Amino acid sequence: MANHHPPHDILTAYTAGGLDEAEDVLVATHLTLCPACRAECADLEALGGALLAGIPPEPPPPGSLEALLERLDQPPPPQPSPPPAEGPLDIPLPLRRFTGPLSRIEFRTVVPGIRRFDLPMSRLDRPVALVSMRPGLTIPPHHHAASERGLILAGGFTDEVGHFVRGDVCVRGPDEEEPHQQKIDDGEDCVVLMVDDGPKIPTTVVGKVVNFLFGM
């Protein structure tokens, strides 16, 4: 079970449909791995439903009934086929539709020991990617120019907050004084779904060189 969760305000926004696609996928994927957050979202949805039930209904706009009846006469849109199962779902379904099974993801090497796969909604100013880091790797210390969210899908790492494993969500931001540094667990690659609102700011010469050469 996950021990590190998305902040309450992100779960609230998720249940209200207020997240963008990248954050929505991250939270939905976390929920498949975290019974506690699934229960919290269910409570939030029930609360939202109770609040809506207390709002007096408004009359529908003219022509809405006719438009609804017309849509009911149309055939339903085709649904995408589920991704092929290959043993345990190492990549949960909300994310798997963008990546396929972990064994088939075509990672590209960005620096020795770190590979990445950019998701379709990724942008230069807001990267959204799966990052795979080799066992035992130490990530150079850095600050964050904006919020960073990471969902661990395989392996694990330790940072200043604690130990993170599959299902955990790591949230860091620009208001933290202490640099962020991660030590990847031994044994297997650590695979993380990353959503970055801004670049990393390295605090060491090695980190600055890596940033300059590889745009990390």
Quantity of strands, as a count: 11
Unreliable segments (pLDDT under 50, ≥5 consecutive)?
Answer: 79-87
Q: How many H/I helical runs?
A: 6
- Can you give the helix content as a percent range? 25-40%
CATH architecture of one domain: Sandwich
Q: CATH H-level name of one domain... which superfamily? A: Jelly Rolls
| Beta-strand content estimate | 25-35%
**How large is the radius of gyration?**
20 Å
Kindly, what is the distance between the CA atoms of the first and last residues, rounded to a whole number of angstroms?
A: 30 Å
Structural class of the secondary structure composition? Answer: alpha+beta
Q: Which strand order does the major sheet show?
A: 1-2-3-10-5-8
CATH class of one domain: Mainly Beta
Q: What is the CATH topology classification name of one domain?
A: Jelly Rolls
- Overall, the morphology is elongated
What is the string of helix and strand elements?
HHHHHEEEEEEEEEEEH
